[in-house]
Design goal:
- By secondary structure, the protein is of the alpha+beta class.
- The chain has two domains: about 1-75 and about 225-260, no CATH class; about 85-220, no CATH class.
- About 25% of the residues lie in helices and about 30% in strands.
- It has helices at about 1-25, 225-260; strands at about 40, 45-50, 65-70, 70-75, 85-90, 95-100, 100-105, 110-115, 120, 130, 135, 145-150, 155-160, 170, 175, 185-190, 190-195, 200-205, 215, 220.
- The strands form eight sheets. Strands 7, 8, 11, 15 and 18 form a five-stranded antiparallel sheet that branches. Strands 12-13-14 form a three-stranded antiparallel sheet, with no helix packed on it.
- A hairpin with a 2-residue loop joins strand 16 and strand 17 (about 190-195).
- Helix 1 (about 1-25) packs antiparallel against helix 2 (about 225-260).
Amino acid sequence: MKALYIASTGMSAQERNVEVISNNIANMRTTGFKRQRAEFQDLLYQSYRRAGAETSDQGTVVPVGVEIGSGVRTAATPRVMSQGNVVPTEKELDVAIRGEGYFIVELPDGRTAYTRDGTFERDNTGMLVNVDGYQIQPGIVIPDGANAVSISADGVVQAFMNNDSAPTQLGQIQLARFVNKAGLASIGDNLFVETGSSGPAQLGVPNQDGMGNVLQAYLEMANVNAVTEIADLIAAQRAYEMNARVISGADEMLAATSNLR
């Protein structure tokens, strides 16, 4: 009975849906996290009577055919790249992006990754790095003795050196943006890498060329809405239960057929 297989694809799809929702909820407090949603497609149809087929020599046609679907599959789990809430942290090396753009990070293997997580620190050489020690690109060194480090809205990093009366510019934060940012591939650790779908990175400085600005001593929180996720979770659970009921009903029909013998 095809209903068993069809309902099983529905249960599998809703199981994947719950996995996506659970990952969103688990990352509600993850800096710069972008929520995902599950998207579905129906499977191939078996046509028992095709619409438009001729039913007589006079040219009459079937107005409505008979098609039975094969179920559902998970087509994609795209990320929703909307802006998350920006909250103050009172830490001078925390930086949030307000608008378009990603910070540029060099991975240990030489690859370039991108992130919305602006939780930055200084390593033992004064280099600006993320929490895993990966250097921010282009490299910015905040030397020992630098005081009152400031990061402007357009990404200029300055500090007072020793007893200087005027600040010294230490570097310029660059951002990257993509034609299709939802096409970026997540590699964990709040990092993304470009793909053929995202297109190449377009580099620029904050407040220019469509890039957002940056806010010092702020961080961007996850764009996960707890109420929405719980509502989606309940809907997914109900859909799973209904597909399970279909399997139970199909099993009862098969049992009734067997008892006729």
